[in-house]
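During the no-cost extension, the postdoctoral fellow (Dr. R.K.) reprocessed legacy sequence entries with the updated structure-token encoder. One reprocessed record is reproduced below for audit purposes.
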Amino acid sequence: MKDVIPQDEFNQRRQQLLQLLPTNSLALVAASSEVTRSNDTEFPFRQNSDFFYLTGFNEPDAVLLLINDSNPRSVLFCQDKDPKHEVWHGLRLGYENAVEALAVDSAEDLDTLPERLPELLQGIESVFYPMGEDSILAELVSEARDEVSVKARRSGKLAPQSLSDLRPDLDAMRLIKSAAEIAVMKEAARISSGAFRRIMRFVEDGKHEYQVAAELHHEFAMNGALHPA
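Re-encoded structure tokens follow.
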């Protein structure tokens, strides 16, 4: 589709969410992971909606951190580039390119997150994440919090005292659409309307459902939409 959300808008969303967080808090949102269909074949990838809303990043296996302490900032943990893997699965952005491409404040290798999260949680009072959605993320937060608790006597920095659901704040933000979002929605509606007019002209006795679907998807693709809305 020709209408897309500009990168500045994703940055504005992160800043808005940071302002909603209490002082000395940290929020985490994880990207989706690829789901294996059989052996080395995956289902079509669908990014986590909240993660995409805050980053515009459409790769799997990444985590966005928003840290509201004395130095409010965004940190993206994503996969490193891997030429051998990319031959089969497509190019990766890589954390070294993420700051410029996505306008986050810093980016690190996803493999370092289990080690880095306890460091980042020191002195943090509250942690926010979408509860009940991602058991792996919940376990990562729990383990990091426990590690900070064990080291608290030596470091003098307490572990986070509260865990809260991030979704109420995110849902409220996503409820109000920007001009760019409305333009994308209008373009999607225009493409969909044209596709249905096309298949109404196409349908007749003897046509199979898969042939109708082919006409529909062809119209989507020819207008720049990779998938049905």
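Residues 179-222 form one domain. The chain is about 50% helix and 15% strand. The remaining legacy entries will be reprocessed before the final report is submitted.
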